[in-house]
Amino acid sequence: MKLLFLLLTILLAVGPVVPERCWMGGYCRLVCQDNEDTISRCRSRKRCCVLARYLTIRP
């Protein structure tokens, strides 16, 4: 029972992980998804991945 209480305390202390945001509502990731393009680097040295549909200019 003490182990369960200790595990629960550790999980609640860590809290949810929120991804870092960057330019144009993109996310900082190690590897961009298929529908995303790399724009620049984030402060954490990860890639700023932005959806490709926001980067294309239609005539």
Q: Helices, strands, pairings?
A:
Elements: H1 2-14, E1 27-29, E2 36-41, E3 47-51
Antiparallel strand pairs: 1-3, 2-3
Give me a quick take on this structure.
With 59 residues, the chain is an alpha+beta fold.
From the spread of the alpha carbons, the general shape counts as elongated
For the largest beta-sheet, the strand count, sense and barrel status come to:
3 strands, antiparallel
What string gives the helices and strands in order? HEEE
- The stretches of 5 or more residues where confidence is low (pLDDT under 50) are none
Cα Rg: 18 Å
Describe the strand arrangement of the main beta sheet, using strand numbers. 1-3-2
Strand tally: 3
What does this 3D model show about the protein?
With 59 residues, the protein is α+β, with helices and mostly antiparallel strands. The model has no long low-confidence stretch (mean pLDDT 82). It has a domain at 20-59. The chain is elongated. Strands 1-3-2 form a 3-stranded antiparallel beta sheet, with no helix packed on it. Helix content is 22%, strand content 24%. A hairpin with a 5-residue loop joins strand 2 and strand 3 (47-51). The protein is built from 1 helix and 3 strands; from the N terminus they run αβββ.
Which key features would you list for this structure?
alpha+beta, 59 residues, 22% helix, 3 strands, 1 helix, three-stranded antiparallel sheet
